[in-house]
Amino acid sequence: MAVSATPPVLSPTSTPGGASSLFRPDSLYSSPAESPRLTSSMINSFITGTGGGGGGTNGNGPGAVHNNECKMVEVHGVKVASFTVDGQELICLPQVFDLFLKHLVGGLHTVYTKLKRLDICPVVCTVEQVRILRGLGAIQPGVNRCKLITRKDFEALYNDCTNARQDLYHIHFRFTPSCGI
User: Fold this and answer.
1) Cβ neighbours, 10 Å, residue 133
2) Are 134 and 94 in contact (CB under 8 A)?
3) Within 13 Å and on the Cβ side, how many CA atoms surround 32?
4) Beta bridge partners of 88
5) Over the range 29-53, which residues count as b (16 or more CB within 10 Å of their CB) and which as e?
6) What CA–CA distance (Å, rounded) separates 81 from 90?
7) Which helix or strand (DSSP H or E) is residue 133 part of?
């Protein structure tokens, strides 16, 4: 088998559409209206599991429970991703942390410490649930683990975080001299 001594040179003057073409000669879309934006029907099919890899079983065999159906539910006036597992509605912990708690506490580690103290046990997401949450934008693209908590547990956690914040506020002003001593 003979090998060419010089590699082919690609240049902007190469023939359009030819084997040596560097760029695609035709546009992928004829108008901006045809750009690859998610439509509501695409999102709904993704959420219900009929497209995009969402849906199916939790990976525990043929008789496994279907708990990969994701719904958007309202928590404190904001839509949050949730799954129904064993008849319980569970919401995405990293998402509610990002939306409601990150300005109240030091970080996610603090939240996990509070969960332990409040005796709240989050449910670990399946791989498929993590994929669905990433696809919806509920968690960051690089995240490969996630936990879910009940709405009741979230309210207990939220109240604990807001009460701790108020306690720190009152302690700071109670012991800070007001006359500049």
Assistant:
1) 23
2) no
3) 0
4) 85
5) eeeeeeeeeeeeeeeeebbebeebe
6) 9
7) helix 127-136
Residue in the structure block whose two tokens are 């719904």? 71
SS3 70: strand
Distance CA 168, CA 162 (A): 10
Sign of CA dihedral 88, 93, 95, 100: positive
- What's the length of the chain? 181
Q: Which helix (H) or strand (E) holds 45?
A: helix 40-48
3-class state of residue 172 by DSSP:
helix
Per-residue confidence in pLDDT tens, the chain, 181 aa: 565 565 555 445 545 445 544 444 554 445 445 545 555 565 565 555 554 444 444 444 444 445 788 999 999 999 999 999 989 999 999 999 999 999 999 888 999 999 999 999 999 999 999 999 999 999 999 889 999 999 999 999 999 998 876 655 555 555 555 555 4
Closest CA to 104 of 173, 169, 153, 165: 165
